[in-house]
Amino acid sequence: MELLMMGLEVVFVPSTLVLIFFGTVLGVIFGALPGVSASMAVVLGLTFTYGLDPVTSIAFLVAVYCAAITGGGITAILFKIPGTPSSAPTTFDGHPMAQNGQPMKALSISLFCSALGGIAAAIAMFLISPQLATAALKFGPSELFAISFMGLSVLTALDEGNVLKTLISGLLGLWLATVGMDPIGGFARFTWGNSTLLSGIEMIPVMIGMFAITQVLKETKERSKIEELDEAGPKNNTVEDKVISMKELWNIKGTIARSGVMGTIVGILPGAGATIASFLSYTSEVKLSKHPETFGKGEPRGIAASETANNAATGGSMVPLLSLGIPGGNAAAIMMSALVMKGVQMGPLLLKTQPQYLSSVFVSMIVTNIFMVVVSFAVAKVFGKILSIPYSILGTVIILLATIGSFALQNNTGNVFLMIIAGIIGFAFSKFGFNNAALILGLVLGEMIESNLRRAIMIEQGNVINVFTKPITAVLMVISLISLLWPVVKPLISKNKAKIAG
Amino acid sequence: MALELLFNGGLLVFFIYCFFYIGGIGHDPATGILDAAEWPRLLLGLLIVFIAINMAKVYKNRQKGETFKIDFNIKKIVTSKLFIGSVLLLIYSFSLDYLGFVFSSIIFFMVYSRLLGEKRIKILVLSSLVSVAILYVLFNSLLGIMLPRGVGAFRNFALFLESLI
Fold it and tell me: A–B: how many Cβ contacts below 8 A?
């Protein structure tokens, strides 16, 4: 209680509240712009903290970070361009829902769930921060491998009617993640002597290419067939588009609760972060659903799972930062460097000697998540207006935004080329029934899976059995294998049952 | 069917090549049983098997009377919107280094919007100028994200623009 009062005293000062509001506006806009990741938003926000004291600085940066993750969902829903990598799963159901004439409903689900995920994670962070951080420290490479493999185990659920092609896509993503220097020994793999490939295949241009460029190419091809129908107006314009009602929100409470818990836990694990949290949560919901076939076609639970989890992960990632001085991800590392620059000694003693950091982060996260709903709606309305622009103009604007997003990553046109190649390949992939989302999932998890598996085997001196028989690893692996094989086994069982019955 | 088999066949050949290529690395004895080459080989091995199964499946599920024949009409391919769009995108990505963001984007915008069906010249010119100007000011000037400047006169123009805004 004392800690909470301390946080309220720090944050509920007019100047700090104004700063948090400003940080929220800044974060939502940055997050909504493709190519400006949450980490980049925090970097851009750093400039404003030079004149602030350390506690206010972290409150402001936390506001930018949380709001940027939420902002990423806006373009994911409206244009199928994930503003931040963690919003990629939001495109799966958010964009189809917007295309079905319900962009406002999709955006409202995304914003409310983001806020709920953020608030839940902030409370979890405040209550169990030190304890959870200690538990996470016990996670070695084998447990981290099992966690990331669990993320991969959802592959077969992405498209249950096409398991083989989805597996091929996922494996291709995992293989693409091996291009460049290997994470343990630094050996060059599949570089063909090209020094650019040494740093590996950049995830963001591939992601933008496979989602945004592939979509524009599809529209380019389709337009030649439907040009005559173009003047008829948007598709399904008879569908009522309203903000999600409390009743509808209540109906997806289970998804929000599960994703909130999962996002917080994944966020706490160093290196995992919001992207893995949103993918893991989305696919878990697909698995748990009685109607998995509705996912990918505008299912509200899909949007809720992804957006709740990625925002919950922001709270989770603050746990190791504040309790142990270990940044959970890029954005946390930037915040840490801002505090170190101001002379703050990060580490386990921080919470004991200066508890106001934990309390101010907690209160500012709560305030940010409340501000965020209002601010995001205003920003989304502006972005939503863009949807009324004819596709002949909008499609090209999307390409320019995607180009800037890929270029800005390293100020390198090579990434723009990579994005376009990924877009063309993505088009061919979807034409032949392969799964772009599975490929991205493999690419996202590839490095983490390989490095942790190889490290775990090294620690056990080559004894693979020892790696997989550790209690946490074994439990996680069994769950993963069941969930990986279930979509393959399920049709066989039903076929058998039908045979017996027949 | 034929096109899908061809696509899968291309992938299969590429993955078999990669399985043996890996890169200029030797065996890394320090990393135990799973070294830098074995992990990608494991993935490629699975990919080769799965793609072979997929090809067999595609062949098995072919429609009655369907033959392995590809209608290779060069004129039809080259004039398709998809092909033109892909080529335009590739040209645009290469032109960024030489013409810079502003010029290459204005030209690309007009051409691609035309491809997407916008026929009114006034709208094409206006929308390309306004969109590129908004994006340039937003990213380059307000967010400080450097955009490609191009070379020679285009670079000088980009520097002039940067000094203006």
Answer: 181
Distance, in angstroms, between A319 CA and closest chain B CA? Answer: 30
Q: What are the pLDDT digits (tens) for A339-350?
A: 777 777 766 666
Non-local CB neighbours of A434 within 8 Å, separated by 6+ positions: A165, A166, A168, A169
Would you kindly state where each structural domain of chain A is located, as residue ranges? 1-136+249-390
- Whether residue B98 lies within 8 A of chain A, CB to CB, comes out as no
Residues 6+ apart with CB under 8 A from B145: A35, A36, A404, A408, B139
Contacts of B85 in chain A (CB under 8 A): 216-217, 220-221
Phi, psi of B151 (to 5 degrees): -125, 165
In this structure, what is the dihedral angle of CA atoms A373, A379, A382, A386, given to the nearest 10 degrees? -100
Angle in degrees, CA B129, B130, B131, rounded to 5: 95
Contacts with A89 (C-beta within 8 Å, 6 or more apart), sequence order? A278, A279, A281, A282, A302, A305, A306, A437
pLDDT band at residue A236 using 50, 70 and 90 as cut-offs? very low
Q: Is A371 on the interface with B (CB under 8 A)?
A: no
What ipTM does the predicted assembly reach? 0.90
Q: Sign of the C-alpha dihedral, residues A465, A473, A321, A346?
A: negative
B103/B92 Cα distance (integer angstroms): 10
Q: What is the mean pLDDT of chain A?
A: 80
Please state the separation of Cα B98 from the chain's center in Å. 19
A6 — contact with chain B (CB < 8 Å)? no
- Residue-wise pLDDT for A162-213, tens only, equals 888 888 998 999 999 999 888 888 888 888 888 878 888 887 788 788 877 8
Interface check for A490 against chain B (CB to CB < 8 A): the answer is no
Min Cα distance B23 → chain A (Å) is 5
Beta strand spans in A182-268 (E):
188-189
